[in-house]
Amino acid sequence: MNDVLATERLVLRPVRPGDLAELRAHWTAPDVRRFLFDGAVLSSEEIVEIIKSSEQDFATSGYGLWTVRQREGTELVGTAGLRQLEELGLEVVYSLAPTAWGHGYATEAARAVVDHALTTLGLPEVLAEVDEGNTASVAVVERLGMTPFETVEGLLGPMVRYRRTG
What we know:
Layout: E1 5-6, E2 10-14, H1 20-27, H2 30-33, H3 44-61, E3 65-70, E4 76-85, E5 89-96, H4 105-120, E6 125-131, H5 135-143, E7 147-154, E8 157-165
Antiparallel strand pairs: 1-2, 2-3, 3-4, 4-5, 6-8, 7-8
Helix pairs in contact: 1-3
């Protein structure tokens, strides 16, 4: 199975060990981590574990975490992927560099991941969990056709769970 996803403007490739420095710089940027990892600053060791877990998920299940880059560039624009949300199923996750905000890249990358999950992987649904104050991510999941179904308490406050069925 080809794990590379492509859209009109973006290429999504599975994360790999060589991405460690870029991922660390991206995920530790204050504006990126504000709603990601509950605001925690990840260590290099934690990022290595995320990469290893993603590689294992791709090997066994055909999903994981992708780097997001413009088709015509090499710079990391962000990340997107699928991960387990408790016992409920897989959730779409994404992060975007502040320099890439406002161009629709988060929606484009997340749509590629959701489409992969619902078509290629044949999942019955994809979930998302968004911090209540994260208006940009609420807009993304709504553009993806996801609908809210539950509000739960998170470490930083209420989180709204969304779903989209195939």
